[in-house]
Amino acid sequence: MAIEVITREDLNEFRSLLLNDLKQIIQPQTQQVKQWLKSNEVRKLLNISPGTLQNLRINGTLTFTKIGGIMYYNYSDIEKVLNGNTQKKVSTLFK
What we know:
Blueprint: H1 8-26, E1 36-38, H2 39-46, H3 50-58, E2 65-67, E3 70-74, H4 75-84
Antiparallel strand pairs: 1-3, 2-3
């Protein structure tokens, strides 16, 4: 059985490698989002029914592009709708 001596430099190198690995794991992974989503993807994303999605199209809340019977929605338009509908907290007499 061979004995290996671990030096302070070895420990410092190990520490820096371990910290770099942990930083990569902890950093939020940026997910590549598709620019154009189909109706079923939008419904899953927003957790809404087909009828609600149809109402959003009809009243012009959500823009879409129709190609060959398939409706596509721009992801940035969906974000605009979500960000545009933020509401402020209404203060009440009772907490």
